[in-house]
From TrEMBL:
GO terms for molecular function: FAD binding; oxidoreductase activity. InterPro entries: Diverse_Substr_Oxidored, FAD-bd_PCMH, FAD-bd_PCMH-like_sf, FAD-bd_PCMH_sub1, FAD-bd_PCMH_sub2, Mopterin_DH_FAD-bd. Residues 1-177 form the FAD-binding PCMH-type domain. This is Carbon-monoxide dehydrogenase medium subunit. Keywords: FAD, Flavoprotein, Oxidoreductase. Coiled coil: none annotated. It comes from Bradyrhizobium yuanmingense. The keyword Transferase does not apply. The lineage of its organism: Bacteria, Pseudomonadati, Pseudomonadota, Alphaproteobacteria, Hyphomicrobiales.
């Protein structure tokens, strides 16, 4: 199938893009890498009157360390991160996640902002960035606002974007020297979307953790207390990981199928073991 007809604009800068988006009154779609929007256009799942191609906007390609965080423009590609063309404040965590997204051809064009905006619960950046404590900046003609990545995903394919807003940047806090990282996913085939993701940032020295269960039909589950570790986060967190508490959490999130819960808990356990290794 081919897309329904649409008009196409390639704005010269971010202000021009925002003006076009505002003027469209909701009938336009942004295209960045086109890796998710392309198939959706071809299948006619979306039929915008106008496509606004932001892929040439230099303002959205910047990547810089500012204070104790990395600020990545929305157009930074998965391959930019995989290849180390962006600074790394996560001690390799983001690079490893990027390298395992889809296939190289997808990673060359797919962008971090596009991945978040598409809001597929199975997307790697949603879970990984939520665990890393990242925030997104959204911009419209009215100004900018910022929110945690996990709050940006309202539901499956449902980002918290208002009309006229785009994702401008992702802010990733530096991973502390004592924080451990683990990331695991279960896919039917290498390069396919995951049907379970576990992302784990545990800092035993600070007795803190950010644990994410992703690739569920809702926004990711983010746990920032010690409930999955018997009430205490310490050096022995690997032994303290409580599979029954994780299972109960998934059940209370509405995952009724015990086999599905088992897969999610097993993948999360793998992430915890990786962090502790
Ligand atoms: C075969 C295949 C396998 C894949 N496997 C994986 C995988 O294993 N893991 C994974 O995480 N991803 C996977 N993906 C998705 C891929 O990572 C895409 O890069 C990503 O989903 C979309 O990024 P994009 O830049 O191509 O966005 P586009 O396709 O251009 O846009 C996607 C959506 O986001 C909107 N959008 C884009 N940029 C912005 C912005 N800055 N502000 C507001 N809205 C915006 C668009 O309007 C559209 O609705 C796969 C894709 C393919 C084709």
């Amino acid at each position: 199938m081919k897309p329904a007809p649409f008009a196409y604009e390639r704005p010269r800068d971010l202000d021009a893009a925002l003006s076009m988006l505002a003027a469209s009154g909701g009938s336009a779609k942004i295209i960045a890498g086109g890796q998710s929007l392309g198939p959706m256009l071809n299948l006619r799942l979306v039929q915008p009157e106008l496509i606004i191609d932001i892929s040439g906007l230099a303002e959205l390609k910047r990547a810089e360390v500012s204070g104790d965080e990395l600020v990545l423009g929305a157009l930074v590609t998965h391959a930019d991160i995989e290849d180390g063309r962006t600074a790394d404040v996560t001690r390799g965590a983001m690079r490893a996640v990027a390298a395992n997204i889809a296939y190289r051809a997808v990673r060359n064009r797919g962008t971090i902002g596009g991945s978040l905006s598409h809001a597929d619960p199975a997307a790697d950046w949603i879970s990984a960035l939520a665990a890393l404590g990242a925030r997104v900046t959204l911009r419209s003609l009215a100004g900018a606002r910022s929110m945690a990545v996990e709050a940006f995903v309202v539901g499956a394919l449902e980002p918290a974007l208002h009309a006229g807003e785009i994702v401008e940047a992702v802010h990733v806090p530096a991973r502390s020297a004592t924080a451990h990282w683990g990331y695991a996913k279960s896919c039917r085939k290498t390069g396919e979307f995951a049907h379970a993701i576990g992302a784990v940032l545990v800092d035993p020295a600070a007795a803190s953790a950010r644990i994410v269960i992703g690739a569920i039909d809702t926004p990711p589950i983010v746990v920032t207390n010690a409930e999955l570790f018997g009430g205490r986060i310490a050096a022995d967190y690997k032994q303290r990981f409580d599979v029954r508490a994780a299972d109960a959490l998934l059940a209370s999130a509405g995952i009724d199928d015990a086999a599905q819960r088992h897969i999610h808990v097993s993948v999360l356990r793998r992430a915890v073991l990786e962090a502790a290794a």
